[in-house]
Amino acid sequence: MRLVVHDLAHRFPGTDLLFEHLDMTVDPGMTVAVCGPSGCGKSTLLSILAGWEKPYAGSVERIGIARTGWVFQNPVGVAQRSALDHVVFPLLAKGFSREEAEPQALEAMGLFDLDHAAGRRFSELSGGEAQRLMLARAVCSRPDMLLVDEPTAQLDTRTAHSVSHVLGNLANQGMIVLVATHDPDTRDACDHVVDLAHYAPNG
Ligand SMILES: Nc1ncnc2c1ncn2[C@@H]1O[C@H](COP(=O)(O)OP(=O)(O)OP(=O)(O)O)[C@@H](O)[C@H]1O
Ligand SMILES: [Mg+2]
């Protein structure tokens, strides 16, 4: 399994280039931080890597990567449903029974320190809990590649460190992990840094 990005450039119709000449290779076991100032194209790059956005130029090869997990920058949930339901639903959709899905969901929630929140409604979660719930849900589906957008934006330093640690462990277990972040601690916890500022036109 390998992610290979070659000479990538992107612009939206009618706008300037966000970045150009971006090359990178990501193997399982590595965590990669995608950094740069607000608006530089971090989220856009993740959507290109996921295959959702077609790049303006260059190529993305997802060699052996069958399943991509994505954690959005802003948590999205169903206000009245429980936190646990949010993690269980994708597993039910994959064909697991509720009895099979719940332990898996609770295990993933435990990784992100959400044991206490399983029975809470989504609307009752704090911003950081909701963000970690989205991580637990993505991890539960055991993706080959996990793309995480600003996972620690709403977390205190200790919780952010713990999330970085979990992402590092997932990489060590064979996942490709990319994290868009402007948090220096989260960036420093990654094995490799891609600073999009270096790929800005004239950057
Ligand atoms: N669909 C779109 N059409 C046109 N412009 C877009 C579109 N999506 C994003 N942009 C613009 O592209 C630029 C990069 O957006 P992006 O969301 O990738 O930035 P970012 O680095 O993730 O920023 P932040 O740190 O604030 O999350 C922004 O100027 C944004 O307004
Ligand atoms: Mg963004």
UniProtKB/TrEMBL annotation:
It comes from the Bacteria. Keywords: ATP-binding, Nucleotide-binding, Transport. The keyword Nucleotide-binding applies. SUPFAM superfamilies: P-loop containing nucleoside triphosphate hydrolases. The keyword Methyltransferase does not apply. GO terms for molecular function: ATP binding; ATP hydrolysis activity. Residues 3-200 form the ABC transporter domain. It holds the Pfam family ABC_tran. PANTHER family: ALIPHATIC SULFONATES IMPORT ATP-BINDING PROTEIN SSUB, TAURINE IMPORT ATP-BINDING PROTEIN-RELATED. This is ABC transporter.
